[in-house]
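Hi both,

Apologies for the delay on this - the queue was longer than expected. I finally got the flavin-adenine dinucleotide-bound model through. Below you'll find the protein sequence and the ligand SMILES exactly as submitted, and right after that the structure tokens for the full complex including the ligand.
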Amino acid sequence: MDFDDTPEEAEYRAGVRRALEEHAAELLHVGAGEETVDAATAEAELRRTQRVLYEAGLVGVTWPREHGGRGGTLVQQAIVQQELARARIPALVNHIGLGMCGPTVIAHGSDDQRRRYLPRLLRADDVWCQLFSEPAAGSDLAALRTTAVRDGDDWVVNGQKVWTTLAHVADHGILLARTDPQRPKHAGLTMFVVDMHAPGVTVRPLRQMIGSAGFNEVFFDDVRIPDSERLGEPGEGWRVALTTLMNERVAIGGAGSDLGVPVETLVAHARQRLPQLDHDRQVLARQAVGRAVVASLATRYTGYRRFTELSRGGVPGPEASAGKLAGTAAAKLVADAGVRLLGDDAVYAATAEGDETWQRSQGFLPGLAIAGGTDQVLRNILGERVLGLPPEPRSDKSAPFAGGAR
Amino acid sequence: MNFDLGPDQRDAAAGARDFYRGSASPTAAREALEGGAVAPGRKALADIGFLGITVPESAGGAGGSLLDLAVVAEQGGAVLAGPSLATAARAAVLVAGAPHLAAQLADGSAAVAVVDGPLPGSSPSVDAAGATLFLGLDDDGALVVGEGEATPGRPLDATRGLASVRLTSRRVLAEDAGQLWARARQVAAVVLAAEDLGAADAAVQMAVGYAQQREAFGRRIGSYQAVKHMLVDAWVGVDQLRSLVWWAAWAADAAPEELPLAASAAKAHAAEVLERAAEACVQVHGGIGFTWEHDAHLYWRRAKVDRLLLGDAAEHLDAVARLAVAGALG
Ligand SMILES: Cc1cc2nc3c(=O)[nH]c(=O)nc-3n(C[C@H](O)[C@H](O)[C@H](O)COP(=O)(O)OP(=O)(O)OC[C@H]3O[C@@H](n4cnc5c(N)ncnc54)[C@H](O)[C@@H]3O)c2cc1C
């Protein structure tokens, strides 16, 4: 048991650091506690940052070389992630493409699709989004109603997606649509790659509860998709989507990195703020900080265990859902302790000095408990797939979707 | 990075599981509440070598690491075994400079307990009931050893051997032992957390097994989300506690500067995880879980007592915050 870099890993890490220093002037950086930059206002810088990182060998680390990746190990990928966080580089503009869409294209796309899409995705020449959720289909994704109807060599798509992160800047998306309403709901779905600039695609940004625009509604009116843009066989869309969703939970809850504000940032904040509180308040605040630190470390070290399994060639199992569930809970404790330490400033959206780190984190976390599988859905998955508890009785799995069994 | 047990530790855990399953049980823990002996008892633990896992080979021990001991302790916790290996591990740290005492600890010829609280008296101390030799810290910060009289209270969990002690003799083993004492207590907190890990895991498994079979309203109760989600939260806690216990036990030998924070984190988490698991276990069983004959309350008793031993969660959370603010997270 050890937590150290091997000599090769240390060397790799040093190379990553050198690259980040060398290219610092071309890369976008964020302040402590900020995680993302609004893609609408900083799109060009974000795309450039990813391109520079790609050219430095730091994007697509684990992707196969034939698809433009580096053919590296999960350990190297984790090292890059740690070093990007350390250098305060914001989340990559194509994080959805890299974490979910790309792996789905690699697993289910044709050679032609892989060749056309993957290198451009890696360089952020194209930004990708994931078009799954709909107004009437979120947790119950297979209830989706957007249809794709075969017409010669094309499919014609009609319907609406919603909560689509990055759709306002995206060039491509992976789209899950219903191609056979006569079959049971999970069996009548097909996955496609859709060109977001195609005629008939309309994107309307939605304002999130913290005020910024991060996700969108997307409307499809007679949008034509060539059959060559299908991912997997017709009717196999659910199986393809499971690849995406499994990658999503690993991407979000993965190898021991903190969701939300890193716990070290909370500790530095406490160091500065604690002495300004009276004695009784200090006692209470230390309880909150201690609890947040314990929850964060428990999640981080559990991530290290999962990571060790993966680095030996294991495949991510349903346990990955536990990482996202516990990581979200820990991030809430961290944000809450951070806000409480602000004293009187805690009731405002920013401190007197203009720092909004803690309020932004507090306001972003409710979304984390919903996106990529709600807390409740993750508990269902863990209960059934890890603990082996029986599923709930369901009436919607075998009847034809069109028959009303939604 | 390699955050996993080694093959030897896996073998040791498997061996310990067999030993403990054959020599201790919730049934024995129930009998101990009615005056029976604590199982497997000191002698059996000495004979199999568990009291000396961290005692140097030169003193008749196995010269193992705290992680070696923690994986064994987890198995003891699963069947509510006593005495606690936390006592052995704590004493082994304290008597490191006294090889003859270390040898007596390892071979069981002395029944050693460590007492907390102002000497010559003590607060309730683990495994003090039935002990013959006591280690304590006196007002001047000296480590002392002596004989004494143990007065047990009415037990809530008889396997912990709790008693208050009055020393009848004492001699100084080491002056200026405050740091050694603190380290020994951290080591003990890690081992207690390891035993709590085993107990919590067992309680969750018991509850899951019942939820897979028991039916109500025409369905198995594990299909109800109120039951399922309660069990998932308990399981996630156990899975996370395992990470903290391994890390803290590893740190004791491999990264001693990390031990104070890691030990407090593990102990604070253990208190809450075992309590949640044991309470869920009683609740999922319904009426049968509230009976004397059922095993659920024995885990519940262990939870209600262990959470207060060697510092409660409030004390350890405070320590974690203070250490982190002082720079322990780097
Ligand atoms: C910030 C953010 C970004 C997102 N980005 C994307 C994206 O890029 N692409 C995309 O396709 N989607 C995206 N989503 C959508 C997200 O996947 C869905 O919101 C999520 O799956 C929940 O679906 P819903 O909103 O329809 O809520 P519902 O499914 O209607 O859930 C409502 C409530 O009911 C509960 N519930 C539902 N089913 C069950 C059940 N079986 N058991 C217990 N409780 C249940 C849920 O937990 C929730 O509390 C994003 C969401 C957010 C918040």
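Main takeaway for now: Chain A has eleven helices and eight strands.

I'll put the files on the shared drive as well.

H.
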